[in-house]
Amino acid sequence: MIDDLYNKIGQILVMSCPDDAIKIVTGIEIVEENDVATYFFNYFDNKNNKKEFEPDLRATDVIFYTMLELKKYFLDNNLTNGEPIWTGCIVEIDIKNSKINFEFKYEPFIDVDDDE
Question: Per residue in 28-74, pLDDT tens?
């Protein structure tokens, strides 16, 4: 079950990124009320240039709701060991080697500047 959720997020990101991407680094942060998320989407091309990309709204919706399922899974299966649940994660995908890594974050990590 949990691997299915990880794979679903990975597949959406790989399908949404530019064709020249060899690595994806995405941050997903969900507010405490579980009704809004903040994202960043970066990729590296074959010359190791870091670039931003923007998936379509449908992709971000699928990622958001899949992250909520993942949070529920962690809570329902006591995977937090009595600690507060994570607030988001950084997902790194090595497209070339078909590897995915989730680094869960417990404090806010995406700066949102309201003045922009």
Answer: 999 888 889 999 999 999 999 999 999 999 999 999 999 999 999 99
Output the CA–CA distances (angstroms, integers) from residue 66 to 1, 10, 62, 77, 108, in the order listed.
Answer: 12, 11, 6, 16, 19
Give the domain CATH number at 9: 3.30.500.20
pLDDT of residue 22: 97
Give the pLDDT score at 112.
Answer: 62
Two structure tokens written together for 77: 């299966």
In a domain, 43, yes or no: yes
b/e sequence 51-89, b meaning 16+ C-beta within 10 Å: eeeebeeebbebbbebbebbbeeeeeeeeeeeeebbbbb
